[in-house]
Each structure stands twice: as C-alpha cells, then as structure tokens.
Design brief:
Blueprint (H helix, E strand, L loop, with lengths): L1 H11 L5 H22 L13 E7 L2 E7 L5 E5 L6 E5 L9 H10 L7 E4 L2 E4 L13 H4 L2 H4 L1
Antiparallel strand pairs: 1-2, 3-4, 5-6
Helix pairs in contact: 1-2
Length: 149
C-alpha cells in the first residue's frame, strides 16, 4: 500500500523528498486504521496487530530510506579488493531497548507510570511489546478510541 501512496505523492510533488515519504507512511497508517475500524466487530483481534515498515527509494541518484517499528535498513557493500561484504547500517529500529525511545514515551504519557516497564530483563511498552509505537499501527496501545467509535 505504501508504494501506491508514494507514487501518487511523488507525482504530486514532482519527486521524492523526506516530506513525501513521511506523507506516504502517514497515508499507509490511515489506511490501516481505517481497515481496523471496518473489521473491528467481526475480527476484534485486528486491534492488537501492527507491523514494521521499511522503504528504500532511489530517485535521481539519491537513496532515501525510511523505517517505522522494530526494523532497520542495512546496505551490503562489497569491497572490490578483498571481495568481502560489509554491512552498513542506514537506519535504526525504534524499540524501547533504547533509552531515548523510553524517554520519549514517558514524555508523551506522563500520567502512565506503566507506559514502559522492564519485564524479564527486557524493556517493554505496557509490559507487552518491545516495539515503540512508531509502527504501522499497534492500535491497542495508541488509538483505543477507534474501538469506541
């Protein structure tokens, strides 16, 4: 779905940019939430799902990468002289094992002391998942209001 969104947005803006990619991720998120709303009564388990999203786009000789969720973009580079492959990390995953991600969640949810907890020696959101809610969309943690509408 994200590639369909991106194609339309890229044509609209005559190319790829950080803004176009952000808008494509947002459009994909909105589409997912719309599907959850439509299927909630017949498939309530859909509200507990989410997914990671990665995108890599080459446009006019520039490589754009984006990710959301517990994933990362890695580029493999072959050294000509040695024929060895080196992995180059181009993005970082968004999970609460990183202090900065835990702090951001605590800042966004100051009245929820259980927003991030360490369970079985692993940091988790609400004690359940490691992924910070910057994914295509774990609705049970982010927008429970859709379940009420």
């Amino acid at each position: 779905m994200i590639f369909l969104c991106k194609a339309g947005l890229a044509a609209e803006h005559e190319g790829i940019s950080e803004n176009v990619i952000r808008r494509a991720f947002s459009a994909t998120e909105e589409g997912f939430l719309s599907a959850v709303k439509k299927q909630w009564l017949s498939k309530p388990q859909i509200a507990c799902t989410g997914t990671c999203c990665l995108a890599g786009i080459i446009c006019n000789g520039m490589l754009y990468v984006a990710n959301a969720g517990d994933s990362r973009v890695v580029l493999g580079r072959v050294e000509r002289a040695t024929r060895e492959t080196t992995a180059i990390q181009l993005s970082a995953e968004h999970n609460v094992n990183f202090q900065i991600e835990r702090e951001e969640l605590r800042t966004k949810h100051p009245y929820d002391p259980q927003i991030v907890v360490k369970k079985h020696n692993v940091w988790r959101v609400k004690g359940l998942i490691q992924v910070k809610i910057r994914e295509i969309h774990s609705t049970s943690f982010c927008q429970t209001s859709i379940l009420k509408s």
